[in-house]
Amino acid sequence: MVNEADLGPELVGRLTYLLKRALLELEDLHAEHLAPAGLGARELAVLLLLGGHEPESQQQAAARLGVDRTSMVGLLDGLEAKGFVARRPDPVDRRRNVVELTPAGQVALREATRASDDAERALLADLDDAEAAQLRALLRRVGHGARR
Protein backbone atom coordinates (compact mmCIF):
# COMPACT_ATOMS: atom_id res chain seq x y z
CA MET A 1 0.00 0.00 0.00
CA VAL A 2 1.17 3.49 -0.83
CA ASN A 3 2.03 5.70 2.13
CA GLU A 4 0.53 9.06 1.20
CA ALA A 5 2.87 10.88 3.60
CA ASP A 6 5.75 9.79 1.36
CA LEU A 7 4.06 11.30 -1.69
CA GLY A 8 3.52 14.80 -0.34
CA PRO A 9 0.45 17.01 -0.13
CA GLU A 10 0.90 18.44 -3.62
CA LEU A 11 0.34 15.02 -5.20
CA VAL A 12 -2.21 13.50 -2.84
CA GLY A 13 -4.42 16.57 -3.10
CA ARG A 14 -4.62 16.40 -6.90
CA LEU A 15 -7.89 15.24 -8.40
CA THR A 16 -6.04 12.97 -10.83
CA TYR A 17 -4.39 11.14 -7.95
CA LEU A 18 -7.60 10.89 -5.91
CA LEU A 19 -9.69 9.58 -8.81
CA LYS A 20 -7.00 7.11 -9.85
CA ARG A 21 -6.67 5.73 -6.29
CA ALA A 22 -10.46 5.31 -6.07
CA LEU A 23 -10.52 3.62 -9.49
CA LEU A 24 -7.71 1.22 -8.57
CA GLU A 25 -9.48 0.31 -5.33
CA LEU A 26 -12.77 -0.25 -7.16
CA GLU A 27 -11.05 -2.37 -9.81
CA ASP A 28 -9.54 -4.55 -7.07
CA LEU A 29 -12.91 -4.90 -5.35
CA HIS A 30 -14.61 -5.76 -8.63
CA ALA A 31 -12.00 -8.39 -9.42
CA GLU A 32 -12.57 -9.96 -6.00
CA HIS A 33 -16.37 -9.80 -6.06
CA LEU A 34 -16.88 -10.72 -9.73
CA ALA A 35 -14.47 -13.69 -9.72
CA PRO A 36 -17.12 -16.21 -8.59
CA ALA A 37 -19.32 -15.13 -11.52
CA GLY A 38 -16.42 -15.69 -13.93
CA LEU A 39 -16.59 -12.12 -15.20
CA GLY A 40 -14.48 -9.00 -15.22
CA ALA A 41 -15.71 -5.43 -14.86
CA ARG A 42 -15.42 -4.76 -18.60
CA GLU A 43 -17.46 -7.87 -19.38
CA LEU A 44 -20.07 -6.76 -16.87
CA ALA A 45 -20.28 -3.39 -18.63
CA VAL A 46 -21.05 -5.17 -21.91
CA LEU A 47 -23.70 -7.35 -20.27
CA LEU A 48 -25.28 -4.31 -18.61
CA LEU A 49 -25.40 -2.49 -21.93
CA LEU A 50 -26.87 -5.44 -23.83
CA GLY A 51 -29.32 -6.19 -21.04
CA GLY A 52 -30.71 -2.66 -21.19
CA HIS A 53 -31.22 -2.41 -24.96
CA GLU A 54 -32.77 -4.22 -27.86
CA PRO A 55 -30.24 -6.42 -29.69
CA GLU A 56 -27.77 -4.25 -31.56
CA SER A 57 -24.66 -4.69 -33.66
CA GLN A 58 -21.31 -5.04 -31.99
CA GLN A 59 -20.30 -1.75 -33.64
CA GLN A 60 -23.26 0.00 -32.01
CA ALA A 61 -22.45 -1.55 -28.65
CA ALA A 62 -18.78 -0.54 -28.99
CA ALA A 63 -19.76 3.03 -29.80
CA ARG A 64 -22.12 3.24 -26.81
CA LEU A 65 -19.38 2.00 -24.46
CA GLY A 66 -16.62 4.06 -26.05
CA VAL A 67 -14.64 0.89 -26.82
CA ASP A 68 -12.73 0.35 -30.05
CA ARG A 69 -13.97 -2.39 -32.40
CA THR A 70 -11.03 -4.70 -31.77
CA SER A 71 -11.54 -4.60 -28.00
CA MET A 72 -15.27 -5.15 -28.41
CA VAL A 73 -14.70 -8.19 -30.62
CA GLY A 74 -12.44 -9.67 -27.94
CA LEU A 75 -14.94 -8.96 -25.18
CA LEU A 76 -17.81 -10.45 -27.16
CA ASP A 77 -15.75 -13.49 -28.18
CA GLY A 78 -15.04 -14.17 -24.50
CA LEU A 79 -18.66 -13.68 -23.47
CA GLU A 80 -19.84 -15.87 -26.35
CA ALA A 81 -17.39 -18.62 -25.33
CA LYS A 82 -18.90 -18.50 -21.83
CA GLY A 83 -22.39 -18.82 -23.33
CA PHE A 84 -23.49 -15.36 -22.12
CA VAL A 85 -24.08 -13.68 -25.49
CA ALA A 86 -25.03 -14.83 -28.96
CA ARG A 87 -24.52 -13.23 -32.34
CA ARG A 88 -27.22 -13.72 -34.94
CA PRO A 89 -28.21 -12.16 -38.26
CA ASP A 90 -30.21 -8.95 -37.93
CA PRO A 91 -33.75 -9.73 -39.12
CA VAL A 92 -34.02 -6.24 -40.64
CA ASP A 93 -30.58 -6.16 -42.32
CA ARG A 94 -29.16 -9.64 -43.00
CA ARG A 95 -25.76 -8.11 -43.86
CA ARG A 96 -25.02 -7.44 -40.20
CA ASN A 97 -25.15 -9.40 -36.98
CA VAL A 98 -26.72 -8.34 -33.72
CA VAL A 99 -25.61 -9.36 -30.26
CA GLU A 100 -27.96 -10.31 -27.46
CA LEU A 101 -27.86 -11.90 -24.05
CA THR A 102 -28.56 -15.60 -23.80
CA PRO A 103 -30.63 -16.98 -20.91
CA ALA A 104 -27.33 -17.90 -19.21
CA GLY A 105 -26.15 -14.35 -19.85
CA GLN A 106 -29.24 -12.96 -18.15
CA VAL A 107 -28.52 -15.09 -15.08
CA ALA A 108 -24.85 -14.07 -15.12
CA LEU A 109 -25.88 -10.42 -15.44
CA ARG A 110 -28.10 -10.63 -12.35
CA GLU A 111 -25.37 -12.37 -10.31
CA ALA A 112 -22.61 -10.05 -11.51
CA THR A 113 -24.73 -6.95 -10.87
CA ARG A 114 -25.21 -8.05 -7.27
CA ALA A 115 -21.46 -8.67 -6.97
CA SER A 116 -20.70 -5.27 -8.47
CA ASP A 117 -23.14 -3.64 -6.05
CA ASP A 118 -21.26 -5.33 -3.20
CA ALA A 119 -17.94 -4.03 -4.54
CA GLU A 120 -19.31 -0.50 -4.80
CA ARG A 121 -20.74 -0.69 -1.28
CA ALA A 122 -17.33 -1.79 0.00
CA LEU A 123 -15.66 1.15 -1.73
CA LEU A 124 -18.18 3.61 -0.33
CA ALA A 125 -18.39 2.04 3.14
CA ASP A 126 -17.09 5.19 4.85
CA LEU A 127 -19.86 7.30 3.28
CA ASP A 128 -23.47 7.44 4.38
CA ASP A 129 -26.21 6.93 1.79
CA ALA A 130 -26.64 10.65 1.13
CA GLU A 131 -22.89 11.13 0.63
CA ALA A 132 -22.69 8.14 -1.71
CA ALA A 133 -25.60 9.50 -3.77
CA GLN A 134 -24.00 12.94 -3.82
CA LEU A 135 -20.68 11.49 -4.99
CA ARG A 136 -22.41 9.65 -7.84
CA ALA A 137 -24.33 12.78 -8.85
CA LEU A 138 -21.22 14.95 -8.77
CA LEU A 139 -19.17 12.46 -10.78
CA ARG A 140 -22.00 12.19 -13.32
CA ARG A 141 -22.05 15.98 -13.70
CA VAL A 142 -18.28 16.28 -13.96
CA GLY A 143 -17.96 13.34 -16.33
CA HIS A 144 -20.58 14.58 -18.76
CA GLY A 145 -20.07 18.31 -18.65
CA ALA A 146 -16.33 18.94 -18.75
CA ARG A 147 -15.95 19.32 -22.53
CA ARG A 148 -18.98 21.32 -23.55
Provide an overview of this structure.
With about 150 residues, this protein is mainly alpha-helical. The chain has a domain at about 40-105: Arc Repressor Mutant, subunit A (Orthogonal Bundle), CATH 1.10.10.10. Helices cover about 65% and strands about 5% of the residues. It is built from eight helices and two strands, in the order H-H-H-H-H-H-E-E-H-H. The protein has helices at about 5, 10, 15-35, 40-50, 60-65, 70-80, 105-125, 130-145, and strands at about 85-90, 95-100. The chain has a two-stranded antiparallel ribbon. Strand 1 and strand 2 form a beta hairpin. Helix 5 packs across helix 6 (about 70-80).
Q: Which range does the strand content fall in?
A: 5-15%
Broad CATH class of the domain at 40-104: Mainly Alpha
CATH fold call of the domain at 40-104: Arc Repressor Mutant, subunit A
Largest sheet: 2 strands, antiparallel
CATH superfamily of the domain at 40-104: Winged helix-like DNA-binding domain superfamily/Winged helix DNA-binding domain
Overall spatial form: elongated
Number of strands: 2
CATH architecture of the domain at 40-104: Orthogonal Bundle
Structure classification: mainly alpha
- Percentage of residues assigned to helices: 55-70%
Spatial strand arrangement across the major sheet = 1-2
Rounded mean pLDDT is 90
Low-confidence stretches: none
Number of helices: 8
- Report the order of strands and helices: HHHHHHEEHH
| End-to-end separation | 37 Å
Keywords: DNA-binding, Transcription, Transcription regulation
GO molecular function: DNA binding; DNA-binding transcription factor activity
Pfam family, one: MarR_2
Organism: Microlunatus flavus
